[in-house]
Specification:
Elements: E1 11-14, H1 21-30, E2 35-40, E3 50-54, E4 69-70, E5 74-79, E6 92-98, H2 109-115, E7 116-118, E8 127-137, E9 143-148, E10 153-155, E11 158-160, H3 162-169, E12 175-186, E13 189-198, H4 208-217, E14 227-230, H5 266-279, H6 297-311, H7 317-322, H8 326-340
């Protein structure tokens, strides 16, 4: 997001990263007379082939800004794995045809044949470029970028597009920027993690993680709800793009995950240790929520098993969902112990 002052005319063309309505709104407040063009296009299609133009004074909704419609001379197709056209609202891979498509890669015949393919929607001999980007048509005919095809991940057996999760979270109030990645900090346990930069007007981000997670839980299936980490800024590479490899692990120093109070009893301390072991997060406070720290139904089964071994106590799934913190579980287990404690036998009273 550029910063210059001046409210005169002109045009700002942006590209290379997803643009959100919140980021755009901040720039337009400082530059009210400038038209903004959100442009998309790979080098192989002579760069700009799709564009979304925002005139001064036009209202742009929050969340991900569309990349728009094809520029003159370009044709685009959103296709499935069998090169069939997909309907509006369904994500597919973007192919570009038209006068701007390159002839291929110099000296790379194999790669050229893989990426530049015959176009079944044009005249004989025409070709189209396979971008590797996943997009979807909006109902109003605008294209929305979803993510890279090679960024798809499997989370608990489901194929997930991190870009789709980003698009949902970008619409949450208080979110300035968001990046979603799949992490495997615990071997065999792939989980989505959302890194959120608070919007300028959002103030402190202490409770933003909970707000964002609740927002996601109301709009996404359970396996797509990410761990939320609030950060002051996203690390970038030398070219200005987000450096995903440098994003901190959830729970790492400075990662922005809020921590509750220290354990106040032996049971709370043991439960905090079990939570940390199962979740792969250090440290865990007595009032930290299992699900806010990345827990899910499969990890809940593992947690219950570890509690049985470490504390010798039985916890049913319903108890964990009702009291998902070490403090809450400790209180529940103490109450259950009181209920199960045998009462002393009644002795006959003398007259």
């Amino acid at each position: 997001g550029g910063g210059g002052g001046g409210g005169g005319g002109g045009e700002l063309v942006v590209g290379g990263e997803q643009l959100t309505g919140e980021l755009l709104a901040g720039w337009r407040r400082r530059n009210p007379g400038v038209a903004v063009v959100n442009e998309y296009g790979p080098t192989e299609a002579t760069v700009g082939c799709v564009a979304f133009r925002v005139e001064p004074g036009a209202v742009v909704a929050g969340g991900v800004v569309p990349v728009g419609v094809p520029v003159p001379g370009a044709r685009v197709f959103v296709l499935d794995d069998r090169l069939g056209l997909v309907p509006a609202g369904v994500a597919g891979e973007l192919y570009v045809a038209g006068w701007g498509v390159a002839r291929g890669y110099a000296g790379r015949a194999g790669l050229t044949g893989e990426r530049f393919v015959a176009c079944p929607f044009g005249p004989a001999g025409s070709r189209m470029y396979r971008t590797g980007d996943r997009v979807r048509w909006r109902g109003d005919g605008q294209l929305v970028f979803v993510g890279r095809a090679d960024d798809q991940v499997k989370v608990r057996g489901f194929r997930v597009e991190p870009g789709e999760v980003e698009a949902v979270l970008a619409g949450c109030a208080g979110v300035g920027r968001v990046v979603v990645v799949a992490r495997e900090d615990v071997p065999g346990d792939v989980r989505l993690t959302a890194y959120v930069v608070p919007a300028a007007e959002a103030g402190g981000g202490e409770d933003l993680a909970g707000v964002v997670r609740e927002f996601a839980a109301g709009r996404l299936p359970e396996f797509m709800v990410p761990v939320v980490v609030v950060v002051e800024a996203l690390p970038v590479t030398g070219s200005g793009k987000v450096d995903r490899a440098a994003l901190p692990a959830p729970g790492a120093a400075g990662a922005g995950v809020a921590r509750g109070r220290a354990p106040a009893s032996a049971a709370e301390e043991l439960l905090c240790g079990v939570f940390a072991e199962v979740l792969g997060v250090e440290p865990v406070g007595a009032e930290d929520d299992f699900f806010d720290l990345g827990g899910h139904s499969l990890l809940a089964t593992r947690l219950i098993s570890r509690i049985r071994v470490v504390l010798g106590a039985e916890v049913d799934p319903g108890m964990l969902f009702d009291a998902p913190t070490p403090a809450g579980l400790a209180a529940r287990l103490a109450g259950a112990g009181e209920e199960k404690r045998p009462r002393p036998p009644l002795r006959p009273r003398p007259r």
